[in-house]
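Weekly puzzle thread! Below is a chain. First person to post its structure in token form gets bragging rights.
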Amino acid sequence: MGVLNVTPDSFSDGGQHVALDDALRRAEQMLAEGASIIDVGGESTRPGATPVSGQQELDRVAPVVETLVHELDALVSVDTSCPVVMREAGSLGAGMINDVRSLERDGALAAATGSGLPVCLMHRQGEPQNMQQSPAYEKPIEEAVVEYLAARVAECEAAGLRRHRLLVDPGFGFGKTVEHNLRLLNQMDVLQSLALPVLVGMSRKSMIGKVLGRSVDERLAGGLALAAMAVERGASIVRVHDVGSTVDAVNMAWAVLQEGCEPAANNKENNA
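Winning reply:
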């Protein structure tokens, strides 16, 4: 899953793909490098980010999603918590909703259910404005994450959002210390108890910077290690900025896990 933020303030690529042509070129590059999904976001959820209105988010996202679908025939995920955007996602041609707030906003669950699209539910603690202010848990982080996601899945099913349309994301960096993130990845295979596909996003995040002492543009090597370890622990989708390098890392890890290899052109299911 290639990251395409059409925002002015995302932590890594903010402002780089606001113009439609820039977004299109970036998506083309990621697809050529092996991305199976393009995740388009119109609201930054980095720590301390400023909220935006639903209409502003839709204005940013809508033309990009429509263009990627119609001109590139891309499978597009919309990274949103906004019911307005969710309701429009299907008609724009999107194939998935990716919500860092797990459909907890008023109206989001109904909007997502009515969209008919698959939905990824993510664990977090707090909101972007405060989530990294001394996050703490009363139980081991992996247990807290599984408990929260199981509860959200149950609520979705009760509202008519069928289980086969759901994915889960443990939410690395969302209300978690570096120690929480490291333990969560190390113990990530416990998420298999949910029996749902797992999406992970650790690309260029501060956990890499804090462990390795690297700036945002120097975190590729750390991110590749995390992607390979996530796949080993059961991740089905890896959300990244650096698609080409991650495709190689994931395919190499997958070859070891399968004790065999396939030509890259025939192995796109492992290139997400």
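Puzzle host: Confirmed. Bonus trivia for everyone else. The first strand starts at residue 2 and ends at 5.
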